[in-house]
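Human:
Take a look at this sequence-structure pair and walk me through the tokens.
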Amino acid sequence: MEISNTQSEYQKPKNLAGLGRRWGGQMIDSITTFFLFYAVGRAAEFVGLPPTVVALLALGSGAAYYLFSDAMPNGQSLGKKLLGMSVIDERSYLNCNLYQSFVRNITTPFLSIFDWVFIFFGSRKRLGDMLASTIVIRSK
């Protein structure tokens, strides 16, 4: 019987996105979330919707972008697209799906800095990436 010497350890991809690029993408996405929240709220007010509906629409649109933006085409939120990054599944290398986008982004508002501490380790994955089995790569 022959024993296989295949390594099943995690191999860090060569094209992982850098810390500065990832931080920049996070800032662009945060600004986009705020802008969307504000614009939808103002538009709903302009149309004359009741204040509760305005609040729900504004909050819902901002939250939806923030949580699901990495599932946009090619695994790229606006910030990632502008800075040449993509979020992909770490095993299959397929683009990030809705579930993975939700799982990786839901941690940030609650764990904030603690979530980002993990990015400084070897695999460059924040806690959200670990939970969603995703990595962020350079696409340009």
